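Here is one chain, start to finish.
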Amino acid sequence: MKKYVCTACHYVYDPVVGDPDNGIAPGTPFEELPEDYTCPLCALGKDVFEAEE
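Its structure:
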């Protein structure tokens, strides 16, 4: 599964880990995150994330 990086603060969403502090279970692909998901560090939306190369 591909990791996604917040272009504002460089937080990396790793689907293997998920975001348990915000209710996102490990194994959740970025594409399946809720539309209102926000970066846990800077609170910007999914639209500022880019796939990590």
